[in-house]
């Protein structure tokens, strides 16, 4: 028989099949079934035998699986392959010497193709793009139905719970990142001489970094894989969070926190998409809601660590005046631990099989799904149960070959690869605005923006209002002294919250003390001595200093407003930051305690949303929680005390968390697998942009009026709840 290929062609065919088998072995990372070499021999023997039979008949039929549906194995199928041993399967068939549950290298249902005629490959045939897209859409629909059936066979058990805790660490790292800067600012401003503008920028830079990261990593996750992208993003977060605890300058710290935010920005979009692709329909809404609890755990972890570490100023060392490592830097270092733990745990988990199937990698997906099935069955006490799936639908792929000649330089090859990757990510982003998804995307943008604008705006406005109320109460306790005369007295104790007018001070010593919120007006200081003074919010207005010495103080001339200096001297002025205010330990503890309570308050909302998500549906949960949150905003007008504001913060957080959980689940289910992370990343980036706007606008009204923040927040929530009802309900649907 002249097959047109000859002996060399046959050998090339066999070598090619073995090469494919080696690739499968490399991708698997562990032994699956019999040895790959023996599997390759048997596969090529069967494949070439069929190839010769088809050539003899001059007919090229499409290969179909024996059971009719192409998904499950037929136990009566004849098999004359040699026997082998498998470490991961059970049950030996004496008749055909094949282990049940063992991967046989069976061709995919859609892989049967016409044999090339006259050496012309089928890929060379010109296809209409519309026809290709129609075929791809059909493949995706078939895959969605079959994938749901396979997940139900795999069950929900040990594997999903293991992945739950692994991805929970990544989500916990995101929750920690939100709180880090806010907790360290009161201490960091002393070390880095931060102005109010610098503190504001440091607070917002994290959100800007997360905005960039969400968009970047979300797009890459749909192209290079969920697991790989999450590992890269968490690694960037860990590295720059580590560096930020050691850098000394404000600019360096700002850059490190920005890049740390870019890294952690990929956590939320990837984690929810990744986990959803291992969950069957009836478990998806509930378990995605349980996963949200780790964000709360991250906030509790950050609050507890701040409470335990930052006030302990003894946990520090100093190398001259150039390098300082205080307790707040220890806290920043500790806050990187969840991200590092997530990286370590994630290396033990596989890639999403749904991602592999969407990208035509059948064998890798099959092995992972078998791992899920076997892990769950062994944990449930049914090790004898066999994974019955042999063939899984894969989505047709468009060839995207880039011709890079052998003489092409490495940097040119990398540039071409990056350019190709960028084009793929960008086209995928534009696809979520195609006519099919445009309405859904625009509606989701409005809901995400309104939710984020009100939530983040209010959650930052609450602490600022509490600080404002504290300052008001502090000012009400100010002591005023008028026309006092003090001579030959040594002050070596803290002077705080006092106003002295028209006083006269002769031959007095102010030594080793702190001045906090002290104001001297129209006063005379003659032959006085100031030594080792640390001050905050302290000013001398229209005062006269005669023959007075300032030694090792921070009473620089800018604190002397319209004052006269006669024969007075400044020696060895203190280096460091001149702060408008510094917080004591009680104030720091209060910040951590309020954040701890606000974070813990979302626990009831998390539990309720998890239990009801699959019962009442995503839209009812989202819209209902938004309406109740909107109503709760009107109680803010009654928050005239510190305790009342804390209670309202807890109430608002506990109610609104159900909206966030429903929104996360809805976003995962509204978009197909090849666009899921891209869409989620874009919407999450928009969320961070809305957070920046909300924080900037709401905090500008602190101490001015409550009406504007209340109206903004309630209006945004009302609009979000109204638009939520316009979205399609996804409860009970297979994952697209």
UniProtKB/TrEMBL annotation:
Transmembrane regions listed in the UniProt entry: 161-188, 200-218, 230-251, 257-276, 288-310, 330-349, 442-462, 589-612, 619-638, 644-666, 678-701, 707-725
InterPro entries linked: LD_SV2, MFS, MFS_dom, MFS_sugar_transport-like, Sugar_transporter_CS, SV2
UniProt entry keywords in alphabetical sequence: Cell projection, Cytoplasmic vesicle, Glycoprotein, Membrane, Neurotransmitter transport, Phosphoprotein, Synapse, Transmembrane, Transmembrane helix, Transport
Domain of life: Eukaryota
Compartment(s): Cytoplasmic vesicle, Secretory vesicle, Synaptic vesicle membrane; Presynapse
Domain Major facilitator superfamily (MFS) profile: 163-731
One GO molecular-function entry: transmembrane transporter activity
Membrane topology of this protein: Multi-pass membrane protein
Stretches the record annotates as Disordered: 24-96
Pfam families assigned: LD_SV2, MFS_1, Sugar_tr
Biased composition (Basic residues): 24-33
Principal subcellular localization: membrane
Comp. bias intervals (Basic and acidic residues): 34-52, 70-91
The family this protein is said to belong to: Belongs to the major facilitator superfamily.
Record text on subunit structure and interactions: Interacts with SYT1/synaptotagmin-1 in a calcium-dependent manner. Binds the adapter protein complex AP-2.
Protein name: Synaptic vesicle glycoprotein 2A
Native organism: Oncorhynchus tshawytscha (Chinook salmon)
Taxonomic path: Eukaryota, Metazoa, Chordata, Craniata, Vertebrata
């Amino acid at each position: 028989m002249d097959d047109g290929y000859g002996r060399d062609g046959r050998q090339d065919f066999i070598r090619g099949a073995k090469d494919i088998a080696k690739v499968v072995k490399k991708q698997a990372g562990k032994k699956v079934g019999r040895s790959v070499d023996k599997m390759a021999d048997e596969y090529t023997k069967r494949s070439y035998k069929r190839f010769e039979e088809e050539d003899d008949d001059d007919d090229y039929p499409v290969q179909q699986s024996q059971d009719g549906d192409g998904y499950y194995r037929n136990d009566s199928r004849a098999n004359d392959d040699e026997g082998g041993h498998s470490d991961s399967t059970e049950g030996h068939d004496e008749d055909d010497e094949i282990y049940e549950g063992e991967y046989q290298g069976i061709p995919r249902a859609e892989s049967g193709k016409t044999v090339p005629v006259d050496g012309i490959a089928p890929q060379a045939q010109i296809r209409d793009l519309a026809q290709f897209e129609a075929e791809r859409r059909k493949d995706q629909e078939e895959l969605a139905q079959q994938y749901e059936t396979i997940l139900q066979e795999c069950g929900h058990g040990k594997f999903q719970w293991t992945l739950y805790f692994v991805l929970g660490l990544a989500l916990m790292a995101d929750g920690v990142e939100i709180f880090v800067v806010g907790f360290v600012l009161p201490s960091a401003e002393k070390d880095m001489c931060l102005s109010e503008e610098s503190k504001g920028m440091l607070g917002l830079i994290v959100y800007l970094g997360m905005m960039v990261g969400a968009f970047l990593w979300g797009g890459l996750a749909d192209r290079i894989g969920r697991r790989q992208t999450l590992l890269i993003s968490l690694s960037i977060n860990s590295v720059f969070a580590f560096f930020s605890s050691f850098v000394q300058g404000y600019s360096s710290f700002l850059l490190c926190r920005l890049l740390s935010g870019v890294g952690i920005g990929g956590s939320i979009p990837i984690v929810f998409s990744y986990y959803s692709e291992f969950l069957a329909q009836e478990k998806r809404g509930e378990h995605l809601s349980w996963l949200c609890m780790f964000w709360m755990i991250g906030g509790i972890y950050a609050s507890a660590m701040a409470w335990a570490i930052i006030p302990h100023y003894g946990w520090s060392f100093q190398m001259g005046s150039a390098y300082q490592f205080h307790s707040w830097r220890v806290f920043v270092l500790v806050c990187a631990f969840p991200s590092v733990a997530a990286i370590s745990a994630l290396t033990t988990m596989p890639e999403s099989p749904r991602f592999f199937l969407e990208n035509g990698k059948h064998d890798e997906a099959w092995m992972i799904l078998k791992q899920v099935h076997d892990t769950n069955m062994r944990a449930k006490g049914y090790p004898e149960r066999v994974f019955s799936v042999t063939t899984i639908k894969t989505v047709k792929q468009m060839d995207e070959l880039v011709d890079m000649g052998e003489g092409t330089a490495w940097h040119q090859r990398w540039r071409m690869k990056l350019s190709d990757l960028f084009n793929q990510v960008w086209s995928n982003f534009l696809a979520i605005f195609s006519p099919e998804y445009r309405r859904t995307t625009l509606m989701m943008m409005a809901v995400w923006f309104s939710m984020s604008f009100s939530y983040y705006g209010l959650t930052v406005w609450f602490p600022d209002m509490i600080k404002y109320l504290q300052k008001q109460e502090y000012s009400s306790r100010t002591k005023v002294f008028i026309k006092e005369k003090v001579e030959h007295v040594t002050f070596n104790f803290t002077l705080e919250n006092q106003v002295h007018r028209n006083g006269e001070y002769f031959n007095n010593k102010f030594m080793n003390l702190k001045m906090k919120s002290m104001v001297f007006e129209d006063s005379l200081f003659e032959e006085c001595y100031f030594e080792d003074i640390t001050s905050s919010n302290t000013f001398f207005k229209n005062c006269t200093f005669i023959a007075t010495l300032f030694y090792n103080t921070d009473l620089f001339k800018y604190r002397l407003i319209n004052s006269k200096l006669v024969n007075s001297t400044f020696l060895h002025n203190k280096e460091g930051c001149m702060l408008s205010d510094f917080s004591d330990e009680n104030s720091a503890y209060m910040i951590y305690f309020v954040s701890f309570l606000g974070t813990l308050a979302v626990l009831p909302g998390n539990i309720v949303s998890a239990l009801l998500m699959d019962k009442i549906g995503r839209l009812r949960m989202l819209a209902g929680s938004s309406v109740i949150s909107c109503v709760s905003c009107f109680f803010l007008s009654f928050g005239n005390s510190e305790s009342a504001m804390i209670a309202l913060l807890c109430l608002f957080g506990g109610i609104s968390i159900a909206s966030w959980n429903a929104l996360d689940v809805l976003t995962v289910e509204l978009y197909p697998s090849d666009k899921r992370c891209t869409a989620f990343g874009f919407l999450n980036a928009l969320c961070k942009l809305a957070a920046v706007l909300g924080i900037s606008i709401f905090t500008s009204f602190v101490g001015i009026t409550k009406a504007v923040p209340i109206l903004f927040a309630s209006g945004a929530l009302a609009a979000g709840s109204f638009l939520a009802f316009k979205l399609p309900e996804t409860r009970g649907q297979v994952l697209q």
